[in-house]
Amino acid sequence: MRAVSRGARYLVTTDRGDGAGRRLARRTGGLLLGHGLFALLLLGACGLRWTAIRGFPSMLLFGDSPTYLRTALDDTPSQLRPGGYSIFLRLLRPFHDFTVVLTVQHALGLLAGTVVYALVWRGVRAAWPGRIWVPGLVAAPAAVPVLYDAYVVQLEHMLLSDSLFTCMLVLGVAVIMWRRRMPWWAGALTGLIFSCAALVRSVGLPMLAVALVCMAARRAGWRPVAAAVGAAVFPIAAYMTWFHSAYGTYALTSTDKIWLYGRTVDFAKCTVIKPRPEVAILCRDGLPRDPAVAPAFQALWGEDSGFAKLPARLYDPQANELAGEFATAAITKQPGDYVKVIWRDTFRAFEPGRAPYPTPDTAAEYEFPVGASIRDREAVLGRMYGGSSAAARVVEPYGQTMRDYQDWAYLPGPALGAFMAIGLAGVLLRARRFGGDVLLPWSTALALLVVPAATADFDYRYVLPAIPFAMLAAGLTFAFRPSRRATTPAPEAAKVSLLKAEPSPAEGAPASAGGAINRGPEST
């Protein structure tokens, strides 16, 4: 009896083990079927960034880079740009290694692509619950431009705020979209993320407004919206207090109106706006224009800039106020021209090719370089921050691999326009639900294209943060629920249909006493 009992226990244990093994195999197979394609894409994206780091072991520097480095080293906010990215660099400063900064920024790019995939996958999965392979088939391609665009990878390699800014916006959008019913703490987290993004790049402030409007459209409720507004106040107020301690004014920068002035010089005519003499020094009428240089760039940084007549140029206390007065007059007296330049530069993002804009030198800095070079000012600040890792180096053949890759592997302007059109279709198809889940990412992508064109100037670098949201909106457009027509008739309809199909007793069919047709015994 004991032997029989032991054998029985063994058989039961074996059956349980086999059942657990089958469940594990099913789960593994389900994961591979559902996410295998994206896993391969993510692995390839990691390899691409590893190649970039091998080819260019240090950061690629841009004209804005010294400003960020100086703020990170001096703990003094910049007058030109918000210092959120400098705070990020400050947090990584203990490593004294630019390779660490590179790795973190590339990881942020991978995270942004993964979040885009996850949001599209969840949306399509809810629409197609019985098709485990469909969500991955839709979501994985949506993440490809975010993970594989060569200019996105190159931007992650630069000492610039764009990668951090983009990832923060993606995370903020994900918090809003993750739950159908948004709790108040998610609203607070949303406000915190978007306000911190505004401290990384000032264009984040309009993105916060877009997020709040879309939260209201999603009927998130007053508690999450109020929590978002309340949480957004604290980081911005804290930064403005820091700025006040350095410059005596509560602001994020002291140059916001200067960038708007640069926008308006593209069309402003002083014969129309008639500025007062103090402001007239900023007029560009009659001055020669370099066709290879954007008007805004020439007006701000050129040798004939009106700010050159001020003691401290752009940093002069009068500069921002004079620029604001000029820009306001130009917009109010030439509104049609202002709308035209916004329209032109917004749709420039959808044109094929990449023109050398705003200057040929600026466009060249968006390419992986052939040789290693660094300006003296950048070299000093770089060594102070990253020591020997600041030395510019290009390691072949990895550098050539990335240069060859960048020649063809990027999202063309017409393709971006097509994805924006798909997203717009998704919004219109969900008009009864105020655009549904597509509204927020599509509106964010549109705002990221329009706001720089309205407040500063066009730059291909400003287009790249819109890519994740354009792809997210396009992917979610396909997350629609197909019409589920009943394959079996309703009970009442079935009863009527059955009665119509059955022969009556008058037609010779035998009936039982209960009135039902006597079909005889069913076969087994």
UniProtKB/TrEMBL annotation:
Residues 501-516 have a biased composition (Low complexity). Residues 486-524 are annotated as: Disordered. Keywords: Membrane, Transmembrane, Transmembrane helix. Coiled coil: none annotated. The keyword Transmembrane helix applies. Signal peptide: none annotated. The keyword Cell division does not apply. The chain crosses the membrane at residues 32-52, 98-120, 132-152, 159-178, 184-213, 225-243, 408-431, 462-480. This is Glycosyltransferase RgtA/B/C/D-like domain-containing protein. It comes from Actinomadura macrotermitis. The lineage of its organism: Bacteria, Bacillati, Actinomycetota, Actinomycetes, Streptosporangiales.
